[in-house]
Amino acid sequence: MHTLHGWTALVTGASSGIGEACALALSQAGVRLVLVGRREDRLRALASKLAVPAHPLVLDVRSRPDVEAALAALPAEFASVDILVNNAGLALGTDAAHQASLDDWETMIDTNCKGLVYLTHALLPGMVRRNRGHIVNLGSVAATYPYPGGNIYGATKAFLHQFSQNLKADLVGTRVRVTDVQPGMVETEFSQVRFRGDTQRASKLYEGMEPLTAADIADVVQWCVTRPAHVNINVVEVMPADQG
Ligand code: NDP
Fold first, then answer.
1. Which pLDDT value is given to residue 63?
2. Which residue is closest in CA terms to ligand 1's atom 17?
3. CATH of domain 8-238
């Protein structure tokens, strides 16, 4: 097993769901953490629970200048980021493409694609210089399997997949690894965001089935980053047993 002792991880979207679970799992492996999100209270509460040094970083990943400035100004103890978990993301709306809101589409592109690109562009050169690192991108089965209303969300996750694969090609010959983790249905705040706070509609999604938990996905992320250094897990698709 690959030891993460002395490593630092930055997790975007650490204020809830899969990102929070990944931060908890990585902290148990002794990794120092930078916790990124917009909800400061959530980030601070999580940081205070962790048994490792943790730095809450309030940041909107859609803002290129904010991302560049915040990452350039990380405290020295957290400045050498070895693991980047690009997890911040969202789906908005369920309308068919001909009825969907262009504002929603733009928000998904700005968060799921541009945010991913800004964080990666800022942190990858340091990983290559130090010849160690791992970028874990939270994709989705929506990249592969279309569904009604999935339109731009699915497309953003296909972008993430293709970006991950091309990064991997550029990084051959280094010990910097790239993984695209593609979950099926995970019960988090994701559906509440998608349905704009309609919790009833969100919980209906899981009727008659047992969805994945955020901890299930964090286990997978943990497994990927602890493989021996010469092993790159390119893509992992994780479905609930109940999801077809
Ligand atoms: P949550 O809604 O629980 O978490 C999303 C996280 O993203 C929050 O912490 C939120 O923090 C953060 N975030 C959203 N927008 C921004 C932004 N502009 N800047 C910074 N942070 C932002 O959902 P999940 O944990 O389920 O989702 C995590 C990832 O997993 C997403 O990329 C999602 O697409 C993917 N995924 C989820 C699935 C599911 O069924 N739940 C299935 C497949 C993939 P804050 O609001 O504080 O900024």
1. 98
2. 60
3. 3.40.50.720
The amino acid present at 4, given as its one-letter code, is L
pTM to 2 decimals?
0.98
Any ligand 1 atom below 6 A from CB of 186:
yes
Ligand 1 centroid, distance to 173 Cα (angstroms): 32
Specify which residues 84 forms β-bridges with: 10, 135
Exposed e or buried b for every residue in 108-146, given b needs 16+ CB within 10 A? bbbbbbbbbbbbbebbbebbeeeebbbbbbbbbbbbeee
53 CB-near residues (< 8 Å, 6+ apart): 32, 33, 77, 78
CA geometry: angle at 146 spanning 117 and 164, to 5°? Answer: 25
Bridge partners (DSSP) of residue 83 are: 9, 134
For atom 6 of ligand 1, the residue with the nearest CA is 13
pLDDT for position 1: 65
> Which residues, including other chains, have CB under 8 Å from residue 184's CB and lie 6 or more apart?
141, 212, 237, 238, 239, 240, 243
How far apart are the C-alpha atoms of 239 and 183, rounded to whole Å?
6
Mean pLDDT of 180-208: 95
CA distance 114 to 110: 5
3-state secondary structure of 57: strand
